[in-house]
Write a structure and sequence with these properties.
It holds the Pfam family BTB. It comes from Phlebiopsis gigantea (strain 11061_1 CR5-6). This is BTB domain-containing protein. The structure is a single chain. The chain is α/β, with parallel strands linked by helices and 274 residues long. The protein has a domain of 80 residues. The protein has 13 helices and six strands.
Length: 274
């Protein structure tokens, strides 16, 4: 095999070479003392008989990780600039390698990266699946809250779901169903919210303004898909109901600002994690 040497890990006083699987077996000249300090896996390995030394009389260990994964892993261990993990596709193999070799310091750092705002905003279900796969309970709970902003049953089928159990996936679905049902039960308009033209009482029964029926129907549907308050309390969503009412309903909605604020708080206060 024709090998090249990593430009970041080419120390002349290295006492071990890690050789990646692809591409072309890139060699990383490293120090056993640093790896042993950071990883119980390597600490125990170095107590065993060592593999045959290479031409430079340094032991060579072939690993299954790609050169990029191995470089990212070592950059978290060594006092060099840390890598910029810009996608979950980059993060997963490094986290897998860190778990495999028991690099706790790397795992701790990647846990923070996994639940960084960009990843939670763009792909919360995938973050949840990755956290579950690697038994990162706190990160899984945080990600589960962010999945409330999307319709989990209408999303793409992602490979990372293969790594979680049916129980963990059911936990996520149960969170969505339970929160949606609880939020829908809160959609009750008090009789103090009135419209000067289109509501009132008839034989003792209270009839809400026309805008409320439209709002309630659409809010129930939205909460069933995404059980969070973000959409149903947005101005465009509420304004659409004003158009469905009478000519005085817009004023009724404006006067009901206190009701919307209270309703939003009660929905926000509902349990939001697995």
């Amino acid at each position: 095999m024709v090998s090249t040497t990593s430009h970041l890990f080419d120390s002349p006083n290295a006492d071990l070479v890690l050789r990646s699987s692809t591409p072309k077996g890139v060699e990383f000249r490293v120090h056993q003392c640093i790896l042993a300090q950071a990883s119980p896996f390597f600490e125990h390995m170095f107590q065993l008989p060592q593999p045959e030394a290479g031409p430079s009389h340094i032991p060579v260990v072939d690993v299954s990780e790609s050169s990029q994964t191995l470089e990212y892993l070592l950059r978290y261990v060594y006092p060099v600039p840390k890598p910029d993990v810009s996608s979950l596709d980059e993060l997963v193999p490094v986290l897998e390698a860190a778990s495999k070799y028991d690099f706790t310091v790397v795992i701790d750092h990647l846990r923070t990266v996994l639940v960084s705002p960009p990843f939670l905003a763009s792909d919360p279900v995938r973050v949840y699946a990755i956290a579950c796969r690697f038994d990162l309970d706190a990160e899984a709970r945080l990600a589960s809250r962010h999945t409330l902003t999307i319709d989990v049953l209408d999303g793409p089928l992602i490979e990372d779901l293969k790594g979680i159990t049916a129980y963990q996936y059911h936990q996520l679905l149960n969170l969505h169903r339970a929160r949606a049902a609880a939020a829908q039960e809160l959609l009750i308009l008090p009789d103090t919210v009135k419209c000067m033209m289109c509501n009132g009482t008839h034989y003792g029964a209270f009839y809400p303004p026309k805008w409320w029926k439209d709002y309630e129907e659409r809010a129930r549907k939205e909460l069933a898909a995404r059980p969070t308050a973000d959409i149903i309390f947005s101005m465009p969503f509420i304004a659409q109901s004003a158009h469905a009412g009478c000519e005085r309903c817009a004023g009724s909605i404006f006067d009901a600002h206190w009701f919307f604020a209270d309703l939003r708080k009660r929905i926000d206060d509902l349990p939001g994690t697995i």
